[in-house]
Design goal:
The protein has 12 helices and 9 strands. With about 375 residues, the chain is α/β, with parallel strands linked by helices. The chain folds into 2 domains: about 230 residues, Spore Coat Polysaccharide Biosynthesis Protein SpsA, Chain A (Alpha-Beta Complex), CATH 3.90.550.10; about 140 residues, no CATH class. Helix 3 packs across helix 6, helix 9 packs antiparallel against helix 10 and helix 11 runs antiparallel to helix 12. The protein starts with a strand and ends in a 5-residue tail after the last helix.
Length: about 375
């Protein structure tokens, strides 16, 4: 029989903790081949949370564990609980839950079913069919939740992962062991993002199940909105290869644009081929910056010939962007025309510049990122 350990970080949850633990343990009656236990990490609650847990420990012998630690944030509380679980309890899987009944304990068997089917990590998703967020949330809370998830999905270019911030999850212990060094740096709610990001990069098998998030009835939320948003952006900027790729693309655009301008205005080369030549110069700079920064976790390994082969492949893939850019500009110039645009009442700009910017943003960047990941900087 495999052991599933539900981890509950708590701070002043006396209003819910007793019933929640009992409801969790009742799930043992609904599953086979699983033994469900509970670990509470209480972060110095000022109410009777720890006292109530200790009373339950007498009733449910060896089913409930209690850690009492300093208040250092959600991520730190989970990290401490994970280390304790690995050392003293050794479960097969850990289930993360909020301690305020935002997560329905009756869903625990659904998580365990997905684990039994082979998933390494299962996430309760509010933004898939069958999932939901509370209808009574204020508009600002709904916008924050949707915006945070969408920002992360776009930031990591993982549109097939629908839920990044919900804390209702089941994670196999091997993945938690591997992630400890990475997640220990995140004390707040961004810990949830860091854990899922690590799992994806590790190649773990992910599954999502619908989750109907329930607004808490007791206590108050511990989220500080401004801090939360800043942490999200800081994490994405630090770990998203796509964001770094876009920055490199902007640098490449500056190189590309500068040379295209030189070819057109100083060497009097036709606009379409001049832009193609400028793009080729930028390719060399982009290859180096992407290899040593954007995709440094998948950096090319080997000597001169390894780099040469990858650079040739990079040029071959990039040639598609040059052709697309040249063809796009030719079509735009032919059917729309080359006009002078009076932009914002400040400057006169040739329309070919606008065409070029739009082609790069909406076609070249997505095309390049997808193919570079597939052919140049593949997962090792």
């Amino acid at each position: 029989m495999k052991k599933a350990l539900v981890v509950l970080p708590t701070y002043n949850e006396a209003g819910t903790i007793k019933k929640l633990i009992e409801d969790i343990l009742l799930q043992n009656q609904k599953v086979t081949n699983w033994e469900i236990e509970v670990l509470i990490n209480d972060s110095s609650s000022t109410d009777d949370t720890a006292k109530l847990v200790k009373e339950l420990q007498k009733k449910y012998f060896k089913k409930i564990y209690l850690l009492e630690t300093k208040k250092e944030g959600l991520g730190k509380a989970y990290h401490q609980a994970f280390i304790y679980a690995i050392e003293y309890i050794q479960p097969f899987v850990i289930i993360q839950m909020d301690a305020d009944f935002s997560h329905n304990p009756n869903d625990i068997p659904l998580f365990l079913n997905e684990i039994a089917r082979g998933a390494d990590m299962v996430v309760g998703a509010r933004y898939i069919k069958g999932g939901s967020i509370p209808k009574n949330w204020g508009i600002h809370r709904k916008i924050l939740s949707v915006f945070a998830n969408l920002t992360i999905r776009l930031g990591f270019m993982k549109l097939n992962v629908h839920e990044w911030t919900n804390g209702y999850r089941a994670i196999k212990i091997w993945l938690i062991k591997d992630s400890l060094n990475h997640i220990k740096n995140y004390s707040g709610y961004v810990f949830q993002i860091a854990m899922l990001d690590y799992a994806i990069k590790k190649g773990a098998k992910l599954a999502e199940i619908p989750n109907n998030f329930i607004d808490r009835k007791y206590g108050k939320s511990k989220i500080f909105v401004s801090q939360y948003i800043l942490q999200i952006f800081a994490y994405i900027f630090s770990y998203s290869s796509f964001i770094k790729f876009v920055i490199v693309g902007l640098i490449g655009f500056a190189v590309d644009f500068s040379f295209a301008y030189l070819f057109i205005n100083k060497l009097h080369i036709a606009k379409a081929p001049a832009n193609m030549y400028g793009a080729e110069v930028a390719i060399f700079f982009n290859f180096l910056l992407n290899n040593f920064w954007s995709f440094k976790d998948k950096k090319i390994i080997g000597g001169f010939f390894a780099y040469l082969i990858k650079f040739i492949t990079f040029n071959f893939v990039s040639s598609g962007s040059i052709i697309i850019q040249g063809a796009g500009l030719s079509l735009a110039l032919r059917f729309i025309g080359d006009k002078t645009i009076h932009l914002f009442g400040v400057a006169n700009i040739s329309s070919w510049i606008i065409y070029k910017i739009l082609i790069i943003i909406f076609i070249i960047i997505p095309y390049s990122y997808i193919l570079y990941n597939k052919f140049i900087w593949k997962k090792k």
